[in-house]
Amino acid sequence: MKKPSGPRSFRDGSVVGGAFADADHLSPTGTSEPDLIHEFTASTIETRFVAEATALLSRLSKSSASESASLTTTPTATGNSVSLDTDKVLSPTLSVDAVNPTHVGLTNSGIVGDESGTVTFTDASGNQVIPTGATLELASAYSGTVSFAGATGTLIIDHSSDFSGTITGQLGIGNLIDLKDITAGGNATISYSGNNSPGTLTVSDGTHTANIALDGIYSLANFTASSDGHGGTFVVDPPVTQVAYSLRQVDGGANYFAQFAHSLPTDPNFFPVGAWLEGVQTQQDINLDKAAGLDMYVGITANSNFSLIQNSGMYVIAQQDELKTNPTVLSNSSTTGWLLYDEIDLALGAGGYTTQNSIIASLPKDGTFTYNNYTKGVQFWETNAEAGRYVNGVDVASADIYWFTDPNFAMDGSDVVSWLNNGNPLSPSQIRLAANYGYAIDHLRAVDATDGVTHPIWGFVEAGWPFTAELKLSFDDEIKNWKLEFDFGEDAKKDGESGEPIDFSGQESLGLCPKDQGHVYEHGTSYVCEHAVGANVTCDFKSGKIILQQPVAREQMSKLLETGKTELLEGFVTNKTRRKFKARLAYDKKEGKVTFEFEPRAPRVPAAKKAAAKKVA
Fold first, then answer.
1. How confident is the model at residue 77 (pLDDT cuts 50, 70, 90)?
2. Rounded to whole angstroms, what are the CA distances from 374 to 82, 198, 267, 381, 392?
3. Cβ atoms 395, 371 nearer than 8 A
4. What is the pLDDT of residue 557?
5. DSSP strand pairing (152-157 vs 197-204)
6. Which residues partner with 584 through β-bridges?
7. What string of DSSP letters covers 520-576?
8. What is the pLDDT of residues 16-67, one digit of tens each?
């Protein structure tokens, strides 16, 4: 025998959503009777199931009080169950036997269908699950959970004020909630307590009120109320309206880059996507960058293979302070622009545009464009006139605000950006918002247009680099579920600063602290002296377990504590240029901290002096 193929229902003499397979004979007491439902399959269900189910419903409706008593004592299985409508007196539920799912017993239930019969399922916990296309009607008080198995289905609530349950999951566009005693019309109101979160949906006609808890992610704009055609109110979560968007003209015009002899393509299919300060040495580097959708480099390490970049069809905006006299860069056709001064507005303030103009004047006249990125000076602090002197002075500008990761935003609700939130202070959720990247570009466009001439406006988005963290499973009270999070050692840091003693008894010491001879242990993302955390802090020795992307193994830290330095480590990467370098970690007694110790460079061999020419008379 097979288990039922899944949630199914029949209503008003028709089969909805499929059929059962190989069901045994059923009776009101769960015993086998050949004249009731039996062995119905997909090929016979359309006529036989409906006819025999009707016979079963008729027999159930005529059951005596003694039969009713016997029904209520039948054990309810923990597996799927089937709710059948009767005369709304017995309201029995067919429950599938968990051991032998083809044998069904009956128990009394407050959940009913209409007079023609409705089949529904409950899950293993007894929660109501409305099958795809099916209808569940609640005729009495209900405080459990209800969910929809598919994108279509109807929940009818006869007495709104008696419903204190929760609708779980996310409503589909075809899931209907029918509030039979709430009259649609001018007196009807609808509200929602959440904001892109779980909450309570409240619908009222002034006389009857429904308070329906929803654990999906909604806002009030999600819901639409209308008449159900029978005096009640339908509430639906309608599909998102599809809005037709038209593409805006490219800033500066479609052929903007055609004015430069060495520039980016004017092909409308070319969309510039670049990486900041990348290093390119091998074809594998190029292949990986192209696979990620990159087609140019904004700033590039001086040791990059420029011939390889050119032959691969990639483009370079080179940093002028380092490369504007480099003959390889100057002669390479992949060089299309010059990066002037990273975040000059932040470094030099409103008057820095004079330095920018001086840099532009110093560049080779090689038919390339000028580019610069601007941050909080141009975007937040300067007037449009001050900011315009920067932006209008270059050929291409970009917005460089790190909304997701900038640690210098005030997350206490005190930060103000004049062109966001109507100039009101920003909450943390309003700062860490993806839409702000677009708003920043809109603002930079407005600044750029102050002289009546437009240029291409680009945007910076942070990209991830390797970092140190552990994965932890935590319960989110907002979504009422478990989720994975990165643990960056903040919990350990808080523990260490809490004043509570830290228990290192389960660890082996890595060695003695060079500052106070206490024992050094692993703690969170660091190696720490036992006296640098917890109660009675008397030492400050700490060193990261990963430094500039270089993992520092326990053995290396033990070596540093014993001898004063580690072995030569080859995986350090600079934050600014992304270049790798080799170094030892060493403890500097004068500085009282762990520092880098570099290999001594080989001495240069001086060139042989030319013999002095003899003066011939």
1. very low
2. 65, 39, 27, 12, 12
3. yes
4. 96
5. unpaired
6. 597
7. EEEETTEEEETTSSSSS-----EEESEETTEE--HHHHHHHHHHSB---EEEEE-TT
8. 222 222 233 233 333 333 332 223 233 333 333 334 444 444 444 443 333 3
What is the mean pLDDT of the segment spanning 77-101? 35
Q: Which two tokens stand for residue 17?
A: 């959503």
Crossing angle of helices 435-448/384-391, nearest 10°? 80
Residue, of 344 and 412, whose pLDDT is higher: 344
165 vs 239, which has greater pLDDT? 165
Between CA 219 and CA 202 the distance in angstroms is: 12
What is the DSSP annotation of 103-129? -EEEEE-SEE--TT----EE-TTS-EE
Tell me the C-alpha distance between 328 and 581, whole Å. 24
Phi, psi of 296 (to 5 degrees): -155, 170
Beta carbons of 90 and 71 less than 8 angstroms apart: yes
Between 192 and 611, where is the model more confident?
Answer: 192
Helix, coil or strand: residue 76: coil
- HSE-CB of 550 using CA atoms within 13 angstroms: 25
Query: pLDDT tens, 551-599?
Result: 899 999 999 999 999 999 998 887 656 678 889 999 998 888 899 998 8
Tell me the pLDDT tens digit for each residue of 559-570.
999 999 999 999
256-459 has which CATH code? Answer: 3.20.20
Could you give the CA distance from residue 219 to residue 199 in angstroms, rounded to a whole number? 9
Amino acid at 439: Y
Contact by Cβ (8 Å): 216, 198:
yes
Q: Where are the extended beta strands (E) located within 237-331?
A: 274-278, 296-300, 315-319
Token pair, residue 232, equals: 């009640």
Location of each CATH 3.20.20 domain in the chain: 256-459
Task: Give the separation between CA 214 and CA 203, rounded to whole angstroms.
Answer: 13
Q: Do the Cβ atoms of 523 and 530 come closer than 8 Å?
A: no
223 or 527: which leads in pLDDT: 527
Report the alpha-carbon distance of residue 97 to residue 100 in Å, rounded. 5
- Give the whole-angstrom CA distance, residue 27 versus residue 81: 15
Record the tokens describing residue 213, joined without a space. Answer: 């808890």
Q: Tell me which of 379-388, 454-463, 487-496 is least confident.
A: 487-496
CA 200 to chain centre: 24
> Residue 216 — φ and ψ, nearest 5°?
-85, -175
C-alpha 514: how far from its chain's center? 43
Distance CA 336, CA 323 (A): 13
The continuous run of DSSP H or E covering 199 comes out as: strand 197-204
pLDDT at position 94, please?
Answer: 37
pLDDT of res. 8: 29
Helix, strand or coil, per DSSP, at residue 430: helix
Beta strand 209-218 with 546-547 is unpaired
Three-state secondary structure along 261-290? Answer: CCCCCCCCCCCCCEEEEECCCCHHHHHHHH
Strand, helix or coil for residue 145: strand
According to DSSP, residue 132 is labeled T
Instruction: Give the mean model confidence (pLDDT) for residues 109-115.
Output: 38
Q: Where are the beta strands (DSSP E) in 19-100?
A: 81-83, 92-96
